[in-house]
Specification:
By secondary structure, the chain is an alpha/beta fold. The chain folds into two domains: about 180 residues, Cobalamin-binding domain (Rossmann fold, 3-Layer(aba) Sandwich), CATH 3.40.50; about 240 residues, Aldolase class I (TIM Barrel), CATH 3.20.20.70. It has 16 helices and 17 strands. Strands 8-11-12-13-14-15-17-16 form an eight-stranded mixed sheet. A seven-stranded mixed sheet has the order 2-1-3-4-5-6-7, sandwiched between helices. Strands 9-10 form a two-stranded antiparallel sheet. A hairpin with a 2-residue loop joins strand 6 and strand 7. Helix 4 packs across helix 5. The N and C termini lie far apart (about 55 Å). The model has no long low-confidence stretch (mean pLDDT about 90).
Length: about 450
């Protein structure tokens, strides 16, 4: 089959999409012809971001979003995307969806179906974790299948069923049949991550990549783990990825060697929820990367831990670690406890100081307006950041978002008034305006770079 893998604009991005690269390798292994359309790589204009935001929060109802699309002048863009895809004479289109691009995805699926009803439309990606959205997409009449969970293997299975013209029986699948939604059993996580083919990237997409932390160098995403062992109250990653699984250090190193040999890439960003869940893995990986003689630079997200010792950080630095990102979230122990972070402010303080002394730049993430956060808790966060700011190169600050599929969502807590959260965000911004330059600002996040 001729299959198009499509990512509609969702947020500013700097590199090719890892999920699409994984799907490409699996489909090509099964002798499918794959075309890729990562419209997100061209999505850097702030005007476009504002337009997409106007669509983002609308219900996933095709009539509503079609009307809004016309009022903000996005019709030509939808037609451009549609014609680009149809020019490849494909049999099926597979969209990767997020909250930010789900409505753009539906508009494009509608446009494709109206142009050629025989083309199969498949929706996957993180947003399929929202069952209500899945129902709306199927009821629109423009989506044939929704594939929830990890689709590395199930997407190939779906097209095997489709080619045989028999009803599919695949975990995680939803589809419309005889005026009702058919939902298969829940999806299962892939256990043997070493058994998955390496992701396949295109040189033309890599050329559009630009590392924001190493002078615009071309870079690629990589993933050593899937899932997370922890259950932070505000995070949906546990439900998105289910069980924590980990590749071997040899598998990750071999992929780095492959991408280096194939594309000349020397900069990698780990897309893992947390790279340091298993510190023995970090120790083995860094040791083998150093022994390989490859001159590689990499970045990753970590959590505060007593196991994040100075000797381990020095080894990470020696292996090429050029940036770490750490979820501080709050400078209040009571808020951290309410979040179920399983860390303390003192633990965070020590990790941050050690990371700095080992010569690794740090990005810190702060969450403002958690439901249990008092004015005193917020002041503790301000004071904590003020005391450690000299160790932090970048900061990303976000107001608390009450998201479905998070542990706290099912508890229906009393939320802080929006005006209070906005006021605290503004106060935080004012407190550190002299120390950091504003890199990026949106409704959901503002990001800073330290002044030097």
């Amino acid at each position: 089959m001729k299959i198009a893998l499509v990512l509609m604009p969702n947020w500013p991005n700097y590199c090719p999409h890892l999920g699409i690269a994984y799907l490409t390798s699996q489909l090509m292994k099964s002798n499918h012809y794959v075309s890729r359309f990562e419209f997100n790589l061209k999505f850097t204009n702030e005007v476009w971001r504002k337009k997409v935001r106007k669509l983002e929060d609308l219900p996933t109802k095709v009539d509503l979003i079609s009307k809004k699309m016309k009022s903000i002048g996005m019709g030509d863009y939808i037609r451009y995307c549609t014609s680009s895809i149809l020019d490849k004479k494909i049999n099926a289109v597979c969209f990767t969806t997020y909250k930010t691009n789900k409505n753009l995805t539906l508009l494009t699926a509608q446009s494709i179906k109206l142009s050629n009803p025989r083309i199969k439309i498949v929706i996957g990606g993180p947003r399929t974790n929202n069952v209500e959205d899945c129902q709306d997409l199927l009821e629109s009449g423009y989506v044939d299948y929704i594939l929830r969970g990890e689709a590395d293997q199930t997407l190939v299975q779906l097209f095997q069923y489709d080619l045989k013209r028999i009803e599919p029986d695949i975990p995680g699948l939803m589809y419309w049949n005889n005026d009702k939604i058919i939902e298969m059993s829940d999806w299962s996580p892939i256990i043997d991550l070493d058994g998955i083919e390496f992701p396949l990237f295109r040189s033309e997409d890599i050329q559009k990549s630009e590392s924001p932390w190493i002078n615009g160098k071309k870079f690629l995403p990589i993933q050593a783990t899937r899932g997370c062992k922890y259950r932070c109250e505000f995070c949906d990653r546990v439900n998105l990825s289910k069980k924590f699984r980990q590749r071997s250090a040899d598998s990750v190193l071999n992929e780095i060697k492959y991408q280096n040999k194939t594309h000349g890439i020397t900069v990698f960003r780990f897309n893992d929820n947390l790279i340091n869940v298993d510190h023995n893995f970090i120790l083995e990986f860094c040791s083998k990367l150093i022994k390989s003689g490859l001159s590689i630079r990499w970045s990753a997200l970590i959590r505060a831990s007593t196991s994040l010792t100075v000797p381990l950080l020095k080894l990470m630095k020696q292996s090429g670690c050029k940036l770490l990102a750490l979820g501080i979230e709050s400078g209040s122990d009571s808020v951290l406890k309410a979040m179920n972070k399983e860390i303390t402010v003192e633990m965070v303080r020590k990790n941050i100081k050690d990371i700095h002394e080992c010569g690794i730049p740090l990005r810190a993430y702060i969450l403002i307006g958690y439901p249990t956060e008092t004015e005193s808790d917020f002041d503790e966060t301000i004071n904590f950041v003020r005391n450690i700011k000299k160790y932090i190169a970048y900061m990303s600050v976000s107001p608390f978002l009450f998201k479905p599929n998070t542990p706290i969502y099912d508890k229906s807590p009393k939320l802080l008034e929006e005006s209070i959260v906005i006021q605290r965000c503004k106060k935080f911004e004012e407190q550190f305006a002299d120390d950091y330059d504003l890199e990026y600002k949106s409704i959901e996040c503002f990001s800073y770079k330290k002044k030097y």
